[in-house]
Structures are given as C-alpha cells and as structure tokens.
Amino acid sequence: VFDYPRDTLFQVDGIGAGVVLISTECFRAVPQPWFHGAISAGEDIHFCWSLYRNSIPVYCDTSVKTLHVPNTPVRWHDEAYFLESKEKSEAWYRSQRGAA
Fold it and tell me: Which of 15, 18, 36, 69 has a CA that sits 20 to 30 A from residue 79's CA?
C-alpha cells in the first residue's frame, strides 16, 4: 500500500495483526476458530473476513506509530523507512518507464 491517510483513523477491509486492539465483543460475535489461515491469506486476514461476514467493521489508526522487526539485521521497518523506500521505488519505476 503506497498511499494511505496519515495520522488518522479509517475503515479498512483487512489488516495485518502485528499490533492490534480487538474488542472482546468481536470474539463473542464471531464463531470459532477465530484465527486460522489458508494458502490464500494468513490468520489475520481470515479474522478480518470473519468480522466482515458478521458486520463488524475493522479500522486502522495511522496515528499510532509502531516498529516492525525485519527478518534481516538491516534496520527497523517503520513509517520513515517505508516512505524512504516508497520514494526510491517510485523513482526506479519512473526510470524504467523512460528506458523502455
């Protein structure tokens, strides 16, 4: 996702569950198993689909800043890193379009 609203709360179809706040009411409304995965998506997305099927909205709050530990010892994946990577990727794609 390259473009998203910064520092605001907005509704989403689904979201990764790295850092989440889930109301206990969700667990009362959604039948078990709550977290199960498949080849098509992980358990976090399946949980979001279960919420959707039960008319429970899912939100993302981009004002909450967290860190993501990468699988490599390079650095933390945070919003600043994402924005820097996004800029490099967009520049690379622009250069490739011009080279064709």
Answer: 36
